[in-house]
């Protein structure tokens, strides 16, 4: 999948300075917040490696000069990277401090992604990005737990005084991310389920570094190394600094064979071995004296943690054996002996109130260790798992045919829709909204139901939606939409004409507004649907803030600084209403894909700018001056004539749902109408209170 050129493997031993771009600089210590964002893997290993500068190597690259290219025979440098796309997505959004409270600064985020990737490309890096695919049914309980935690995070973001550091990925950030990667012609593919093992296998098969944010990658046998995503930095000077983990150096310092790393991870504790089975081993090792490896650097001179010492003690124990099997036997024997001693002393039973745990037996521990060790083996077939075949199955008539699989791999059939085909489930992921009000996702349910009809083609009558209900994510059975929807089998093959599929899309969404820019055609239909179905009147200033956001000059928008902090004037009513618009846009994108994309895909960065819309609304919702609106548009770089034309066209199509108005002045320019930005004063209280009562019921 890449052109030629390799990132040289970290040698087992060499004198520092042999290659000018590799220096023995210590790995920079990751912040506590960064470590918390990492997915579960080997417990405590990432924090342990923060104190092991000897296990890291620094790569610093600048764009090649014409003279350097000429000296290389006219060939540009190419350095391959196999990248975990979800890790890159989360890292770039959260490290960029974009405002998620207001619904996402998608244009600024897209520009940030573009600059980052372009810097890598200019320095010779060639990326293959692998995205997570469908949600494995066995993982659903874990996902629900994470979503419930996110609901609590949203509550803190929107209401608590202690909200700094709390973040939620906006629901359309993934699409904005993918739009940029496609624009820059980065190779991207969706895996069947989780991408971790695929990224590792690709890196091994193609002789390159893996890039992710999962401590399992420290254990995978990756001859060319592993770069944690927050250690791949694109600097403002156009250079790239990458800090790479060296398996060989780490194992040499611990006097451990590299083949023993999977056992180390399993015995220390990971997702595959229940902690109740490793507990006796950990107790037995509790008093064993171990020496810190040479070069150990603890921040502020602090003593090693309990987890640090456990890793060293397990490494010391298994390093005494010649084979992994012999080391497993020793681990099980020590754990069994400690367990028997605990039972005799009466200390093995769970304490009152402690969660029920799996009963220890030596056989169970050995089996769990064996299974866990196997999970770290990178099978060459995994490197081929992104082709036209798949292990996913569906009962829908379309089957997992090459056209369907190809659309899924390329992202033209979103992972959420693939989940409908495979599992008959759709995940309405948690977003920033008023969690004390009815969830906004049901408002756009008719759009998704039509998408289910197109996907399942009569093979099922219901789809399970996971959606917020109060402060918990719950499952709801949703009836599949009208059978008149063109099926994906005929849509993706082209047997159903594009015009007919477009007509089907707009029969659900509503016709687009005439007179708006062509690239905003589908967006205008979404805005109409929003105004008509939100519940309670929409004010002129709410509509104006959405339209103005769409008509910003992109260069001005991209340069606007990101503001992570929650504005002191944040209105939860407006947060909730704008969140509903995002759910509608996201659902419309899903329906368009389920119909084989008969309408040009909208770019989320061109349609939604939550921070801009919130600020515009705040500055104008009580404006009274004749020139206040025109002046605001001028400051924001929005030309009033295109704005007024677009606003007027949409407003005319939803006039019965709208309070307030915008009128043209006799001498040119525009102003708020006689009833002001929100309509007559006596209507304001009614408009403000209606949404919570009717927001969900109005979805039908």
Q: Flag low-confidence runs.
A: 1-40, 352-356, 681-700
Taken as a percent bin, the fraction of beta residues is 5-15%
Supply the helix-strand structural class: alpha/beta
Radius of gyration, in Å, reads 28 Å
**Main beta-sheet strand count, sense and barrel state:** 5 strands, parallel
The quaternary structure here is single chain
First and last CA, distance: 47 Å
Instruction: Summarize the amount of helix as a percent range.
Output: 40-55%
Offer a quick outline of the entry.
The chain has 700 residues and is an alpha/beta fold. It contains 28 helices and 16 strands.
Present the secondary structure layout.
Blueprint: E1 22-23, H1 32-37, H2 45-49, E2 56-61, H3 66-71, E3 79-84, H4 85-95, H5 106-122, E4 125-131, H6 140-159, H7 173-183, E5 187-190, H8 196-206, E6 209-212, E7 226-228, E8 232-234, E9 240-245, H9 247-253, H10 261-268, H11 275-284, H12 306-318, H13 324-345, H14 362-375, H15 402-409, H16 415-423, E10 425-427, H17 445-456, E11 462-469, E12 472-479, H18 488-493, H19 498-509, H20 521-533, E13 538-539, H21 540-550, H22 554-559, H23 572-594, H24 604-607, H25 610-620, H26 628-635, H27 640-653, E14 658-659, E15 662-664, E16 670-672, H28 681-694
Parallel strand pairs: 3-4, 3-6, 4-5, 6-7, 10-11, 13-14
Antiparallel strand pairs: 1-2, 2-9, 8-9, 11-12, 15-16
Helix pairs in contact: 5-7, 10-12, 10-14, 11-13, 13-14, 17-23, 20-23, 21-25, 21-27
